[in-house]
Each structure stands twice: as structure tokens, then as C-alpha cells.
Design goal:
The protein has 301 residues and is mainly alpha-helical. The protein has helices at 23-36, 38-59, 65-95, 102-111, 113-143, 150-169, 173-179, 184-195, 199-230, 239-247, 257-294, and strands at 6-9, 296-299. Strands 1-2 form a two-stranded antiparallel sheet. The protein starts with 5 loop residues before the first strand and ends with a strand.
Length: 301
């Protein structure tokens, strides 16, 4: 890899790196990159799978509803950040047609791990604030004895919408830290500048990519469960229990440990398999916005 700056100037290479936000082009690029570099992306997905498995396992051992949710997330978070960062940095290097190795990827990540975690914690805090505002506003409305909880719901949702706007505006903090300057404040400001003129288009494309990933994962998981139903391996678990487990994050009610273990593994495994798809898409959207706003996409030392 070039030790100075590997860059692509769209003015000089407009045919090869013409910026576009066409959904079809982005989707084609996502699957092409994954297919052509599946060994690299699956090795990165393994790290993400470990993060998922660690979080899921800890939730079953830590008592208390609040501690049982927060502590596993905090412990598994560094693994998730490393996996996402590895996917982002690998995608950018492949886009620039640069040779990339595991040493290059992880050296870059660990040199910038502190700002990566710091910016991620800020974004997660904003998300938590938005979600808590809805329940808190409703609770305060009930305690004050107001005739309707509607005002509380409205206030809560206003805060939630503001939080969503901020999260989307800051969503490119990871690639900015990896490709540009490793400072939290700079990353959040730069991300805002990249999203402010294309906020709704970015939201739509990201939503579409996530829907595709979720559909792939759900179809495979339900297919495996159907096969197990045919062979009477599901025990007392019915489809309603399975759907509540998948979509509402409820505990899978099953008296068959074999079925429970397989379905849990398949669910986590499929989340790991589709992980590179949305990471590649996320990175390509950043690259496209970077080229449109700055006229160049580069990897700075």
C-alpha cells in the first residue's frame, strides 16, 4: 500500500470512478465486491459473529434487566467496532484497487481504535437518549395526572426524531476516522457535511440495504426451522413462538435443547453472513458522498 496518500481524483479518472447514487449500481457493487472477495469478508464477519455470540451468551448469565442489557453490549462493543472498521477499510482499499492484507487492516484500526470507540459511544448515547425520551415522557405524563398521555408521546417522539436526524448526520464517523483525520470532533463535523445535502436519499438507500439483509437472514432462518418442524425436532415450539423470538427479540420457548441451540446458532450465523453486505453498502455510500462533496476519495496516513 502506498505510504503517502492513495487517492482517486474524479476529474482525472471520471470514467472509472464516476460518482453515482443509483440504487442499482450500489446494489450491484455490493454483491460484486462480496462475491469477488468473499474469503476476506467472511474472515471479517467471523469477528462480528464472535461479538454477537459474546453479547448473546452474556445476556443469559448477567442478572437484572438493565445490567443484563447494558453490560453485554459494552463488553462486546469493541469486537463489533473492530469488525465494522475492518469491513469499511477493506472496502475502501478494494474500491481503490489497492492490495490489502490483514496486517494493513488491523494496524490501521488499532492505531485509531480510541477515536473509533469514542465516536461510536457518542452516537449510541444519542440513540439511547432518543429511545428513552419516549418512555420517559409517557411516564411523566401519567405521574403528573394529565388527562391524556398524548402530549408526552408527542414530546418523546420529537426528541426521538431529532436523535435519528443526528445519528444519520453522524453515521460516517467511522470511515472519516479510518480514511481521514482520527479525531472525534472532526469526524462528526465531516460526517454532517457529507450528509446534509443528501439526508433523505442516504436514509432511503441505507433502509433498502438493511431490508435486503434482513430478508435474506429471515428467509434462511425460517427455512431451517421449517425443515426441523417437518422432522419433529422443534418440540413444543410453534411458529408464533419463533416469530416472536425473531422479530420481537423474545426468549425462544422450546423444550428441545437441540432445536434451541441450532436456531440460535443459525440466527447469529446469518446475521454474521449478511454483515458484509451492509458494511460494503455503508462504505460505498460514504465514498460516493466524499467524491461528490470533495471531488476526491483518498486514504490518508
Amino acid at each position: 500500500m502506498n505510504e503517502n496518500i492513495d487517492s482517486i481524483d474524479v476529474n482525472q479518472n471520471s470514467e472509472q470512478y464516476k460518482p453515482s447514487l443509483k440504487i442499482g449500481d450500489i446494489l450491484d457493487s455490493i454483491f460484486a465486491l462480496y462475491r469477488n472477495n468473499y474469503k476476506l469478508y467472511l474472515s471479517i464477519a467471523l469477528i462480528y459473529f464472535i461479538a454477537l455470540l459474546l453479547e448473546y451468551s452474556l445476556k443469559g448469565f448477567i442478572p437484572g434487566s438493565i445490567q443484563g442489557e447494558i453490560i453485554p453490549v459494552l463488553i462486546s462493543m469493541p469486537f463489533g467496532i473492530i469488525a465494522i472498521s475492518a469491513g469499511v477499510y477493506a472496502t475502501g482499499s478494494l474500491y481503490l484497487e489497492r492490495e490489502i492484507s490483514a496486517d494493513d487492516i488491523f494496524k490501521r484500526i488499532f492505531h485509531r481504535l480510541v477515536p473509533l470507540i469514542g465516536s461510536h459511544l457518542i452516537v449510541r448515547a444519542i440513540l439511547a437518549l432518543g429511545l428513552m425520551s419516549v418512555s420517559f415522557s409517557m411516564l411523566m405524563t401519567l405521574r403528573l395526572g394529565l388527562p391524556s398521555i398524548l402530549p408526552g408521546i408527542i414530546i418523546g417522539f420529537i426528541i426521538l426524531l431529532i436523535s435519528i436526524y443526528i445519528i444519520v448526520s453522524w453515521m460516517f464517523h467511522i470511515p472519516v476516522i479510518l480514511y481521514e483525520i482520527p479525531k472525534v470532533g472532526y469526524a462528526l463535523k465531516k460526517s454532517y457535511n457529507l450528509t446534509k445535502f443528501s439526508w433523505w436519499r442516504i436514509v432511503f438507500i441505507v433502509f433498502l440495504i438493511l431490508i435486503i439483509c434482513y430478508a435474506i437472514s429471515t428467509i434462511i432462518t425460517l427455512s431451517v426451522s421449517s425443515i426441523m418442524y417437518v422432522f419433529n425436532i422443534a418440540g413444543n415450539t410453534n411458529y408464533q413462538d419463533l416469530l416472536q423470538w425473531m422479530f420481537l427479540n423474545e426468549v425462544l420457548d422450546s423444550d428441545n435443547l437441540y432445536f434451541y441451540s441450532i436456531m440460535t446458532f443459525v440466527n447469529l450465523f446469518m446475521r454474521g453472513i449478511v454483515f458484509p453486505l451492509w458494511v460494503i453498502g455503508y462504505t460505498l455510500i460514504y465514498i460516493d458522498r466524499k467524491i461528490q462533496v470533495d471531488g476526491v476519495f483518498d486514504i490518508q496516513n
